[in-house]
Amino acid sequence: MKELMLKPVIQHLYLHIPFCAKVCPYCSFYVHGGGVSKQERFVEALVREIQSANVVWDLKTIFIGGGTPSMLSAPLFSRIQEALPPLSSEGEFTLEVNPATVTDKKVEVWKSSGVNRISLGVQSFRDEELKLLGRQHDSLEACQTFRDLRSHGFKNLNIDLIFGLPQQNQSHWRETLEIALSLSPNHISAYQLTYEEDTPFFEKVSQGSIIPNESERQEMFEITEAILQKGNLHRYEISNFSLLGNESKHNQAYWKGSDYLGFGPSAVSTVQHERWTNRADTESYIQEGMRSGVPQREREEITPQIFWKERVMLGLRTREGVLKEHFSHRNESIRTIDQLQKEGLIEERGDSWVLSPQGRLVADSIAQSFF
Ligand code: SF4
Description:
Elements: E1 9-17, H1 36-51, E2 56-66, H2 74-83, E3 87-97, H3 104-112, E4 117-123, H4 127-132, H5 139-151, E5 157-163, H6 170-182, E6 187-192, H7 200-207, H8 214-229, E7 234-237, E8 240-242, H9 249-256, E9 261-263, E10 268-271, E11 274-278, H10 282-292, E12 297-301, H11 304-315, E13 322-323, H12 331-342, E14 346-349, E15 352-355, H13 357-360, H14 363-368
The structure holds iron/sulfur cluster.
Iron/sulfur cluster (SF4) binds near residues 23 and 27.
């Protein structure tokens, strides 16, 4: 008798759109330029990849990111949307939007396509910082875009911000946060700038022409929560703040270790203890997509040890923390927890361990101390 192979049930889907009008000097994602004809060929390959998935869909979240998905024309966006599996009635459909790429026509298509959450890549509300970051919008345009999205009926809006920029001080960061709050967003992601290898910013740090001011960066991190609380935005992950009930369901699924599929060059999928990454090469993605719908992929097994490590690293960054049972059979970890508790870096909350305010300042090194 043939063995019955059950298809995996997928609730979370990510699409990576690799195009950007200009690559920002701090960005380490797989992105590049590309005109309309390349975008059209890419979208056809993406549609093929979506259609070739051999899974049972029960979609709760869709996230279209990149890159700059909002660069795609309204007809190209519709072509993708028509290929998407149905999203559940309570589902979350997020689109990353760059303020410099928005038109009324696109906004109408996003709305009618079921997008119900927009993540607006603002990064800063200070024009000199936007220039330094290589962004193509200014502060006024970002505010106007936010208001336009609201007036088109988008009820769930996130603003993406970055702090810890060269020459940025606390009062500059405070100004950006206050302007963001004045727009009444549902969610703010506030990421600390990291200097990633193979970026122009990293090179400047290596050459000494950018000198990160660590104590200033730490103080910016510390004031963020206090300021955002004034807008009822509560921290639920180290870099993420939201109104109650407006937490990103898609990102929470990643942090909890749920299965998900990722389509597009460089996109990652994790299903049933296996992870694969699509080759980061748009031209070969297009060619393979046209041949078979399936791009080249690198595979890795998610062993119980890797799964555990990821739950600890990601869980500790969240408001819920990590369930105590995750540590119960690991004597070494129990000793680490005792030590962290004595140092005031970790606290007990119900059945879980969570980082203390002090611990949040050094979250990554705390996670490392378990491995
Ligand atoms: S717009 Fe975003 S994705 Fe594109 S290069 Fe800049 S930071 Fe990277």
